[in-house]
From TrEMBL:
<feature type="repeat" description="WD">
    <location>
        <begin position="242"/>
        <end position="276"/>
    </location>
</feature>
<dbReference type="Pfam" id="PF00400">
    <property type="entry name" value="WD40"/>
</dbReference>
<dbReference type="GO" id="GO:1990298">
    <property type="term" value="C:bub1-bub3 complex"/>
</dbReference>
<dbReference type="InterPro" id="IPR036322">
    <property type="entry name" value="WD40_repeat_dom_sf"/>
</dbReference>
<dbReference type="GO" id="GO:1902499">
    <property type="term" value="P:positive regulation of protein autoubiquitination"/>
</dbReference>
<dbReference type="GO" id="GO:0044774">
    <property type="term" value="P:mitotic DNA integrity checkpoint signaling"/>
</dbReference>
<keyword id="KW-0677">Repeat</keyword>
<dbReference type="InterPro" id="IPR001680">
    <property type="entry name" value="WD40_rpt"/>
</dbReference>
<keyword id="KW-0853">WD repeat</keyword>
<protein>
    <submittedName>
        <fullName>Uncharacterized protein</fullName>
    </submittedName>
</protein>
<dbReference type="InterPro" id="IPR015943">
    <property type="entry name" value="WD40/YVTN_repeat-like_dom_sf"/>
</dbReference>
<dbReference type="GO" id="GO:0033597">
    <property type="term" value="C:mitotic checkpoint complex"/>
</dbReference>
<dbReference type="GO" id="GO:0007094">
    <property type="term" value="P:mitotic spindle assembly checkpoint signaling"/>
</dbReference>
<dbReference type="GO" id="GO:0000776">
    <property type="term" value="C:kinetochore"/>
</dbReference>
<dbReference type="GO" id="GO:0043130">
    <property type="term" value="F:ubiquitin binding"/>
</dbReference>
Amino acid sequence: MVNRSDFVEIVDCPPDYISQVLFLEGLSKLVVTSWDGSLSIYDYRDRNNVVLEVRLVHDTAITCCTESMIDNERCLYVGTVQGEVLKVELSNGTFIPVSGSLCNELGICGIFSTRQGQVITCSWDGYIQVINVLTNSMVKMVKIDKKILVSDFDGERLILATSGNKIVTFDIPLSTDDKGNEVESGLKYQIRDIKITPQHDAYVSCSVDGRVAVEYFNDDTKKFAFRCHRISLSDSQFVFPVNSLCFVPNSNILYTGGSDGCMSCWNLTSRKKIEQLPKFDENSIVETVCNGDVLCVATSDDSFKTNPAIFKNIELNPSKLYLLYL
């Protein structure tokens, strides 16, 4: 049983809405990007002293981040709300634009690294770009006729949840005339997150109406869905969006995080909830990631998404970051 006191709250957390959390492979480092344009790197080796090592700030909101290797040296790439794709030079704190990359009108919503020395980006306006990290230039582009909401990549397959309630998959490497394989989503309402399973045989998606769907690439008979992140009232249910999904690596254990500020743990083989984590704070859970040793949870105030009007001087609760050492 996990207690609230088992989580370590990270100080020096970006106050604005957190867009992505990423563990650097092979290092005890956590990368956090935010809509205030910041990119922060923390050293979490000592749970009693999680240290902010780097904070860089771009002039527009950073929406996503990935790590890549160039000549055995680690580097970072980020996407922005203005549609920029940028290489991050940690040595001098600069953001270098990718040569030939589009400046997508609706911004970058996903960015991933491949084993072939490339970076793949997805934008809300339906563009998929392939970038050669050695030359820091775009080498390929595909356009789909729908908006891309969220995406995931497992090294061999790129999966997109799009407008029109569709799921589109592409095999990698990408070909310029590839339109992908399109199927109907197993969820009725807008998808907030999508993840390919560690076994690479299925994908999990979650939606604004408190549902999670598990669908298999090659066996439609095994699909199932379940409801979660709800409060039962005397005559009805209060439903919260499920915002974030993450797997424990090499397992069938799934974490779901919702706008109720709660996180649930599920065994997809037995199709049962195995743990309910204690509520973190009054924010919504917006991003989660697990590397097998540590679970990171980011919470942000997303009440602006349901407000009937957006006010310029609206006061939002600051974001927070938590670590659970497994």
